[in-house]
Amino acid sequence: GQNIDQPTEMTATEGAIVQINCTYQTSGFNGLFWYQQHAGEAPTFLSYNVLDGLEEKGRFSSFLSRSKGYSYLLLKELQMKDSASYLCAVRSYSGGGADGLTFGKGTHLIIQP
Amino acid sequence: DAGITQSPRYKITETGRQVTLMCHQTWSHSYMFWYRQDLGHGLRLIYYSAAADITDKGEVPDGYVVSRSKTENFPLTLESATRSQTSVYFCASSELGQQFPGELFFGEGSRLTVL
What we know:
The structure holds two protein chains of two kinds. Chain A is mainly beta. Chain A is 0% helix and 58% strand. Chain A has strands at residues 3-5, 9-13, 18-25, 29-37, 44-49, 53-57, 60-65, 70-75, 84-92, 102-103, 107-112. In chain A, a hairpin with a 6-residue loop joins strand 4 and strand 5 (44-49). Chain B is an all-beta fold. Chain B has strands at 4-7, 10-13, 19-25, 31-38, 42-51, 54-57, 64-66, 76-78, 87-94, 105-106, 110-114. In chain B, strands 2, 4, 5, 6, 9, 10 and 11 form a seven-stranded mixed sheet that branches. In chain B, a hairpin with a 3-residue loop joins strand 4 (31-38) and strand 5 (42-51). Chains A and B meet through strand 4, strand 5, strand 9 and strand 10 of A and strand 4, strand 5 and strand 10 of B.
């Protein structure tokens, strides 16, 4: 089976930086994804890591360490619109094709003025 | 417009009734998925499909039936709805290949209440 852990809730200040951690246990690891989900809306894709290291995309960066089963999402220059849930998801390749992503329960990020 | 659409967006039904949630995508993606999202559980995979006429169970398939006769459609049927199936259901699609990491594109969700 797979197990994905991330904090339930975090609070940060507008303009600051926040790091959301995700740890996972899986076999046949084949990629880690971060999604953003605003309340009442569908998740939207933020980033993808399959190799170790940092991927940067504007204000958002995502890091992966496969040996540690660890990833983080870094959000810089926080804006009020960044208040949302952030979902960590892992894809495992079973050999029979691309299975669906397994999601963590999400981290609810609250941005304060 | 291209995209992935779900219908109905909101549905209230009674225990024991059959309900079908529709999902249609215009990208010709090979893969389609159904997830349910519940407080405290996050997104959980119900069923997925790698191509037309190919479907497979996910983490929580009991009580659900899917079909995929055409690439663009992937309906989800609750044969006899139960209160525990009250949830928000998301359909998603993806494509895999050297140029595509396989991220999921989600529909807007169908909010189902079973009384």
